[in-house]
Amino acid sequence: MTAGTGKSMIRRGTNLPRVGDFNESVILDAIRRHPAGLSRVELAHATGLSAQTVSNITRRLLDQGVARESGKQSMGSGKPRTLLEIVPASRYAVGVHLDPAVITCVLVDLLGTVLAQRSEGTPSGGDTDGVVADMAASVAAIVAESGADRERILGLGIAAPGPIDAAAGWVVDPPELRGWGRYPLRDKLSEATGFPALLDKDVTAAVVAERWTGVANDSRNLLFFYLGTGSGMGLVVEDTVLRGVSGNAGEVGGLGAACSTRTLVEEAIALGVLGAEYTVTNPADAQRGLERLAALAADGERQADGIIERLAIRIGRGVCAAATLLDVDTVVFGGPTWQLLADRLLATIEPMVATSPFVRATHPTTVVSTTLGEKVAAVGAASLVLDRALSAQPRSLLLG
Description:
By secondary structure, this protein is an alpha/beta fold. The chain is about 40% helix and about 20% strand. The protein folds into three domains: about 20-85, Arc Repressor Mutant, subunit A, CATH 1.10.10.10; about 90-210 and about 380-390, 2-Layer Sandwich (Nucleotidyltransferase, domain 5); about 215-370, ATPase, nucleotide binding domain (Nucleotidyltransferase, domain 5), CATH 3.30.420.40. The chain has helices at about 20-30, 40-45, 50-65, 130-145, 185-195, 200-215, 255-260, 260-270, 285-300, 300-325, 335-355, 375-390; strands at about 40, 65-75, 80-85, 90-100, 100-110, 115-120, 155-160, 165, 170, 180-185, 195-200, 220-225, 230-235, 240, 330-335, 365-370. It has a five-stranded mixed beta sheet with strand order 6-5-4-7-11, sandwiched between helices. It is globular, with a radius of gyration of 22 Å.
């Protein structure tokens, strides 16, 4: 696809002096979004940068080993143009997703491809320092397993349930993580692993994953509905991830509580669909009950299917309202609970979005499931690092 003519939206650069880091990120991002490669002429056209600026930047990227020349593109009777592509193994990032039921660690390359991963049940009891030590051990294990050069690992991203204090790097008494209270997770895990670290909400990490390596990397206006132990929405408007003042944008209040795994299992027990042996005392119990509920619904148990249908309607209404408010063109669903119920939920939600009088009819709205599976938030955590280090950050242009 010729740069600038397809759906991909590339940030424009600037030829003002003293903004080399920004322009380098613009070029790198443009190359990354075109796996087939781009020529220097196409890069200049796509980014608005001068041919000389593009030439200087691509030379630096080649010298750093981040990009490479990948072949020639014939231009008819003219001289063939040399294509540039990303070198995936030139840089890596680690992602850790702290979910109340399971902790997932991944190591990804520069394109977001998972090279190693590990998952363990989340311990209960509130021994936070012990959990961090286990996380650090898992990180060390996947780095060793992958064979990645530690010097090429840009850092570690952490995805955690809200609320968080993003600036301080603290989780703030997450409802399903009893005993955690206010805990400096970012700095503790950074110290334990030796990697610089970032902390963000799991739903925010998930939407970053979709922009970096998922099904929505061409969308500038995106809503990600995350359904796991809890639920929430990740939001992108005009190619910018919305985080809010404290990093907690996307909390969905009563909708989130009504869509939690615990709520679904408790409803099933109250209706007699599940027995008392599925009583929820911790997130792992809730996951076990939900798996049984999903199996019953798949086997045609009417009340079980009714619980899931009501869940779908609640989600559909919330998504339609948010899609209208933000005027998005893409809605992506994902998370551990979503993966378990995806086909059944989409069968109800997709027509709701398509026929909603509130979703703008001036453009199509794509409704899809993530292709990143249950590990979307962990991949997102790693993508936070890649995005921070390598994507064009307009704030870097601010003076002073």
